[in-house]
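Chain A, query sequence.
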Amino acid sequence: MTMEVRTFGNCNSERILIQMVDDHDLEFIDNEVAHINPGDFRLITVKVNNWNTDLSPWEAPPVFGNTRFGKGATETLSLLTKSIIPSLGCSRAELFIGGYSLSGLFALWAACNTSIFKGVVAASPSAWFPGFVDYVKNNPVRTQAVYLSLGDKEEKTRNPVMATVGNAIRELYETISGQGVECTLEWNEGNHFRDPDLRTAKGFSYILGC
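Chain A, predicted structure.
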């Protein structure tokens, strides 16, 4: 298993942000980088091969279209921790992980399974994912800070599964805060597809300041 890795920002910085991305994310990555403050960081993007499989912690039925969700997150996290991160050559670096949509869900799940990340960004995450809230309740996040966000129109959808995202993100906030982790929940204007680059940048800016 291999994935394309790119570096943005200060390539010598030991404050390293890791983000799982697809082609759409990469179209706007320069704008995201420009809006992350403070500016001393290195952003490592890892392009996944199959979004619905590589970032999903377990199998789940389709919620739109006919594409099911796989269970590739374990293999993806193994690739990060055993290959990609060691290749960066920064044994004393501060590591952060974040992402948008299913990538944000993966970032949270990763923090439940490893303690190497100082902070996590889950911008408009797929918190509706079946069983995920209960998973976090039973497997506490192992990080210092978590940034959650959601668009104020995301739960106003006719899709019955995705309409649960609002209550799910609220419950995640209460759960993670109750685990003794510094956690914030920010509401953004608009639906799921509005300003993903800016929403992710706000999240990374927050955890860099923690």
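Helices lie at 23-27, 29-34, 51-54, 73-87, 102-113, 132-138, 165-178, 196-208. Strands lie at 4-9, 15-21, 42-47, 94-100, 119-123, 145-151, 182-188.
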